[in-house]
Specification:
The protein is an alpha+beta fold. Helices cover about 25% and strands about 40% of the residues. The chain has one domain: Nuclear Transport Factor 2, Chain: A (Roll), CATH 3.10.450.50. It is built from 3 helices and 6 strands, in the order ααββαββββ. A 6-stranded mixed β-sheet has the order 2-1-6-5-4-3.
Length: about 180
């Protein structure tokens, strides 16, 4: 594999990592992580919001805190054109949320981004959020909610208390195979 191709693959991977930081930062209400996806002078257009990264975090986290108990910003198809220190990407997303009224909200669309590599770091400088569909889905009970030790490894949280931040990751639940239970 030639060096230029390896460099393009690494750049593309760094760009996808950047987009993932945004999604995880939003879902965990991790301001620093979300902001790490943007250069400070970035402009984001999402819904009725148009502004910079810090204001985006404040707006979006308030919106999600008011309406949902959990959110998942899932990244799907991803294309990326890299030209030197600038890249343009289109990333399909599926947004899923458990609303406070116990319904589930789903929406799909695309993040269209211009990124720049500055000081060796790829970050977003322009983001346009194109929302293409939305739906409310009836809720069902969460599976396994009646398992007594289900949260011994940590309960889902929109903070750094979430199990995904645990280092080192360890299991605190007793071994149990329901097929072998008497």
């Amino acid at each position: 594999m030639d060096a230029d191709r390896v460099a393009r693959v690494l750049d593309r991977h760094d760009i996808l990592d950047c987009l993932t930081r945004f999604s995880r930062g939003m879902d965990r209400f991790d301001r620093d992580l979300l902001l790490s996806a943007f250069h400070p002078d970035a402009v984001i257009a999402a819904g009725d919001f148009v502004g910079g990264p810090s204001d985006l975090y404040e707006w979006a986290s308030a919106l999600h805190e008011k309406g949902q108990v959990a959110t998942h910003h899932n990244l799907l198809n991803h294309t990326c054109e890299i030209d030197g220190e600038t890249a343009h990407s289109e990333t399909y997303y599926l947004f899923v949320a458990r609303n406070r009224d116990e319904t589930n909200w789903m929406a799909g669309g695309r993040y269209i981004d211009r990124l720049e590599r500055r000081d060796g770091s790829w970050r977003i400088v322009v983001r346009i959020n194109v929302i293409e569909w939305s739906s409310i889905v009836p809720a069902m009970p969460l599976p396994f909610a009646d398992v007594p030790d289900i949260h011994d490894n940590g309960a889902p949280s929109r903070s750094k208390a979430d199990p995904s931040y645990q280092r080192p990751l360890v299991n605190r639940r007793e071994r149990h195979n329901p097929l072998r239970a008497v």
